[in-house]
Amino acid sequence: MPIIRVNPARLMKLIGKDITINELSEILFRLKCEVEVCEDGKLAIEVNNDRPDMMISEGIARSIRGLLEIELGYKRPITRESDLSTLVHKVPSRPYIAVAIVRNVNIDEEFLEELIQFQEKLHITYGRNRRKVAIGLHDLSKLPCREISYALVPLSKRFVPLHHYSEMSVGEVLKKTEQGQKYGSISLYNNMHPAVMACNEIIAIPPVINADITRIEPGTKDLFIDVTGIDYDAISRVLDVIVTNLTERGGIIERIEVVKENSKVITPELREDIMRIEINYINKLLGTSLTSEKVVKHLKTMRFEA
Length: 306
Fold this sequence. Notes:
Layout (H helix, E strand, L loop, with lengths): L2 E4 L1 H8 L5 H10 L3 E4 L5 E4 L10 H11 L11 E10 L7 E8 L5 H16 L8 E7 L7 E8 L3 E2 L8 E2 H7 L1 H6 L8 E7 L2 E5 L3 E2 L12 E7 L2 H15 L5 E9 L2 E5 L11 H8 L5 H10 L5
Parallel strand pairs: 4-7, 4-14
Antiparallel strand pairs: 1-3, 2-3, 5-13, 5-14, 6-13, 7-10, 8-9, 10-11, 11-12, 14-15
């Protein structure tokens, strides 16, 4: 199971209440998590694979606020429509993309470190080491233009990869960089590779690496996010998890029209699944005699709407 490292002071601030490490451990145990205090004072929290929303402090704090009854039920995020557009061409090796903007994220150094950790934990677990799902995080203000496209590009097309200082061809990136050697074979197709572009300028070659032009850093305020993969349901749900966690920092989600051939969809979809369960069935399964009011209360503490 994934282990994430978090700053306890940052976590307490997000929870909105100071609690002891022992109290925190007991609460997290109720959420199927294990906690250890590291030598540097940070907490190492082991999270279940089925809780990708808790692979970052914002998601952990949201769950804890429910159990402490600081905040109950599901808080629907603030959304609005974006004027940014995304055109999807045929990419047989990695056919699906979902995108979003989240404004007012206001990234500092500590959050940036944890955001990158969150991205990688999602890659390893839900993304199956980027084969199924890969995530690109970009500084919105650095996009070359407002017209995004997703397409195959020739290996000769050039860009400056993240944390590099000179242009390389896509083929050189795949052969010479650490990320390219790890992930470069995943989505190759007929000597071409998927790319996310802004006005024909590469901003990412998923699932390998972003371009340096849209690098996020302390001071970044607004994010553009792309999620690509081979399973549309998976990329859509991962994007939902990312953007809803960012709203815990006061972020505002902008939904984007994604056009593919003769179809279009607005992402993130922010899907809500509805289940109908008989109270008698719950009591029979648990061996309890809970009233409907008690069941609703317990569901709300787990941040469900009921």
